[in-house]
Specification:
The complex is a heterotrimer. By secondary structure, chain A is of the alpha/beta class. Chain A has seven helices and five strands. In chain A, strands 2-1-3-4-5 form a five-stranded parallel sheet. In chain A, strand 1 (about 15-20), helix 2 (about 25-30) and strand 2 (about 45) form a beta-alpha-beta unit. The longest helix of chain A is centred in the C-terminal third of the chain and has 16 residues, at about 125-140. Helix content of chain B is about 25%, strand content about 30%. Chain B has helices spanning about 5-20, 45-55, 110-120, and strands at about 25-35, 35-40, 60-70, 75-80, 85-95, 100, 125. In chain B, strands 1-2-5-4-3 form a five-stranded mixed sheet. A two-stranded parallel ribbon of chain B has the order 6-7. Chain B is elongated and about 55 Å long. Chain C has a single domain (about 50-335), classed as Cytochrome-c3 Hydrogenase, chain B (Orthogonal Bundle). Helices cover about 50% and strands about 15% of the residues of chain C. In chain C, the strands form three sheets. A four-stranded mixed sheet of chain C has the order 2-1-8-9. In chain C, helix 6 runs antiparallel to helix 7 (about 175-195). The radius of gyration of chain C is 22 Å and the shape is globular. Classes of the chains: A alpha/beta, B alpha/beta, C alpha+beta. Chains in contact: A-B, A-C, B-C. The interface of A and C includes residues 36, 95, 99 and 100 of A.
Chain lengths: ~170, ~160, ~400
């Protein structure tokens, strides 16, 4: 493992961005910094600029006005940049999926494979957020997991005829 | 509901009715209960009625609810009568499309923001408004698509991908 | 009192400078400055617009409660309390008394957690990081109790049209009392630290003053208007839930400045504790179980419900046509009224005070980070939100040195 990766795992600098969220996940992320959970003693730090960030914590359901910002921020972050989708909205837009004000889920806003970890919950507990960040960091040193082979839809749901474009 | 409670609702209703008729405004009153009074006025009296009600003591402008109804469009202006434990709502309706009402922002300064929102989401226009710019929807939202209108007017006309 | 909005000109919006690589950072507040003084402010909203009113039209009356809880994570239960009252108002439903007390308990616990959160953030902006850490640390036992009573630290899903979803069992009540007894002295210490601090007096008094007339013109609500001496509180003026059944006082301050608004929030915490204790006393005396009026259907009509959320009145209007879904659901959060008061409170202030003047309205926290400061003459972008926080803290440090504290 290179020195940079070692340093990253010891002390991840985290940038937090929200795109159309109710702020509950955002408060739980801030809570993670506070005395009860206190990730600062592990070296994780919330930074003010995405250029200094090793990890991006993204919350929110990606509404039209804010989704572009997430795209731009990801482009400006130095790679490798771990993206952790925090909360049900960031994982898959949750209950806001059908709204006119939404665009596409986070993993389509960002390039494929950009999102490293998903932390579901509404809001996820601070313990879950920490676990998600740790898991995301763990992917840096681990060998890449074998890509799952997509199961044809006829086997998943007997009797269904697959339509165009469905795996 | 006790007799006294109903009387309290009627007392406030009479006060408002007198104040309105002193300004030359007539309205159709519906006292749902002592805490909820609804007044329907003709759109030409909207600004005058708003001035009368907003000037009464202990009154606060809460918000306005715009909606599309079976016959057209309606706006309800909700006022909190904090000294009388009542929410008074002034209703104006129109059957025109596009719907237009007078802006009450000259009387109630903060009404200009909810009027912008009603214009953005429902396409209701307000005469003499300081500036009916977009307030909630994004800049790339098409001009003639109003999300809160009946059905799903945006489907097929608004691209989801950014 | 008329405010002319300067139309955003092309040069005012283009940020320039090596310190701002995010060229098109969208901003909630754009401050135009002349030297160190704010001469104009533009406010742009819509960053959190999720189309909830339209979503409501596609859900049943019961399902809508869970959607609107997620309008705001901090005042999570304030919207459901207002909404279920609006639905009950349509048909004139009588809610069981036990449910009324439970609604008040959950509403006040939320007020406590929200005000503590605000105290922490205000401390963060002013450079009192210990206050930030303490306030958020004292929130934790509160969130644990909420989890015990409702099942979740936030987004409690407690309200349903007709009553509440879960009962507060008698075994849980001593735990709540214990938490309140442990919290009260800590709150007093925090309150004393804030109210008696000479640096905070110098920092916050006279800053961001909102007059009573402006409160009326802008429809200001909650601590924002109570800090200016306007004695309006939905819990007392339009009694609902159990607020008319227990003893408590409305807190106001006369100054209208950021200090006054802060003091209102801090002192309200003690009233909340009083209300919760009063409700728990009554709950213990009542038989458990009757918590739901079991509404079978909602008749056609319209209803209005409102609640005094930590930030002010949440207002819901629901219209029904007799089916199982609302045909119109208007939602108005208190910040929609309070936000625009910044046009009165921030113009003429120094940029070092910008963050605290805006934070005094208590908008959603992450919005205050999206701030930009522009030179009023040449439109050059000078600072962003984080730099404004840094300037704010530097001013506190300076005052502390001057006062010799």
């Amino acid at each position: 493992m290179g020195l940079r990766l070692k340093a990253l795992m010891k002390s991840p600098w985290v940038f937090h961005v929200s795109a159309g969220s109710c702020n509950n996940c955002d408060i739980e992320i801030l809570d993670v910094l506070c005395p009860r959970f206190d990730v600062e003693r592990f070296g994780a730090l919330l930074v003010g600029s995405v250029r200094h960030a090793d990890a991006l914590l993204v919350t929110g359901a990606m509404n039209r006005k804010s989704a572009r910002r997430v795209q731009q921020l990801y482009q400006q972050a130095a790679k490798p940049c771990l993206v952790v989708a925090v909360g049900a909205c960031a994982c898959g837009q949750g209950i806001f999926r059908d709204s006119y004000a939404m665009t596409v889920p986070l993993d389509e806003v960002l390039p494929p494979g950009a999102v490293t970890a998903y932390v579901p919950g509404c809001p996820p507990k601070p313990e879950a957020i920490i676990a998600g960040i740790v898991k995301a960091l763990g992917t840096l040193s681990a060998k890449p997991a074998p890509r799952p082979v997509p199961v044809p839809v006829e086997e998943r749901v007997p009797g269904v005829v697959p339509s165009e474009g469905v795996a | 509901m006790s007799e006294t409670a109903v009387t309290n609702g009627e007392v406030l209703r009479e006060r408002i009715e007198q104040a309105l008729s002193a300004a030359g405004v007539t309205g159709a009153f519906f006292v749902k209960n002592p805490q909820r009074i609804y007044i329907e006025v003709d759109p030409t009296y909207l600004v005058a009625a708003s001035r009368v009600i907003f000037d009464m003591p202990g009154v606060r402008f809460s918000i306005a609810s715009g909606q599309q109804t079976r016959t057209g469009f309606e706006v309800l202006y909700h006022y909190g009568f904090d000294l009388d434990d009542c929410v008074v709502s002034v209703r104006v309706a129109t059957t025109e499309d596009p719907p237009v009402f007078d802006s009450i922002s000259g009387v109630v300064h903060c009404a200009q923001y909810i009027e912008r929102e009603m214009h953005d989401l429902l396409g209701i226009a307000f005469r003499d408004h300081p500036g009916l710019d977009r307030i909630l929807l994004s800049e790339d939202w098409p001009d003639d698509v109003y999300p809160l209108r009946r059905g799903k007017p945006w489907v097929g006309k608004v691209e989801k991908r950014i | 009192m008329t405010v002319t909005m300067r139309a955003p000109s092309a040069e005012a919006v283009v940020p320039i400078g090596p310190f701002h690589p995010l060229q098109e950072e969208p901003e909630l507040f754009r401050l135009h400055v002349d030297g160190e003084t704010v001469v104009d402010i533009e406010v742009e909203i819509g960053w959190n617009h999720r189309g909830i009113e339209k979503i409501s039209e596609g859900k049943t009356f019961d399902q809508v409660t869970y959607v609107i809880e997620r309008i705001c994570g901090i005042c999570s239960t304030s919207h459901p309390i207002a909404y279920v009252q609006a639905v009950e108002d349509i048909g004139g439903v009588e809610v069981p008394e036990r449910a009324l007390y439970i609604r008040s308990v959950v509403g006040e616990l939320e007020r406590l957690h929200s005000h503590l959160l605000w105290v922490g953030l205000a401390g963060h902006f002013l450079g009192y990081n210990t206050v930030f850490m303490w306030a958020w640390k004292y929130r934790e036992p509160l969130l644990d109790i909420l989890e015990e009573l409702t099942g979740n630290r936030n987004h409690y899903a407690m309200m349903i049209p007709g009553g509440v979803r879960r009962d507060i069992r008698n075994e849980s009540i001593p735990k709540v009392r214990e938490m309140l007894d442990a919290m009260a002295p800590k709150l007093e210490m925090l309150a004393g630290a804030i109210i008696d601090d000479p640096v905070l007096h110098a920092r916050l008094k006279g800053v961001g003053v909102l007059s009573k007339e402006d409160c009326k013109a802008y429809g200001a609500l909650g601590p924002t208007s109570r800090g200016s001496g306007v004695p309006g509180d939905i819990r007392r003026d339009h009694p609902y839930a159990a607020y008319g059944l227990v003893d408590w006082d409305v807190i106001t301050q006369e100054s209208g400045d950021a200090y006054g608004k802060g003091v209102v929030r801090v002192l309200e915490c003690f009233e909340s504790i009083k209300i919760i204790r009063g409700c728990l006393d009554r709950l213990e005396q009542m038989p458990e179980g009757e918590i739901d009026a079991n509404i079978k259907e909602v008749p056609p009509g319209e209803g209005i419900g409102h609640h005094e959320a930590p930030r002010g009145e949440t207002f819901h209007y629901v219209r029904s046509d007799g089916t199982n879904r609302p045909i119109r659901h208007k939602v108005r959060a208190p910040t929609f009224m309070n936000l625009w008061t910044c046009k009165e409170t921030i113009i003429g202030e120094s940029i070092t005070d910008a963050t605290i003047v805006l934070a005094a309205i208590d908008p959603c926290y992450c919005c205050t980070e999206r701030m930009g400061v522009y030179d009023a003459d040449n439109g050059k972008r000078l600072y962003d939100g984080r730099e404004l926080i840094r300037l704010s803290r530097q001013k506190t440090e300076r005052l502390r040195k001057e006062l010799g504290v």
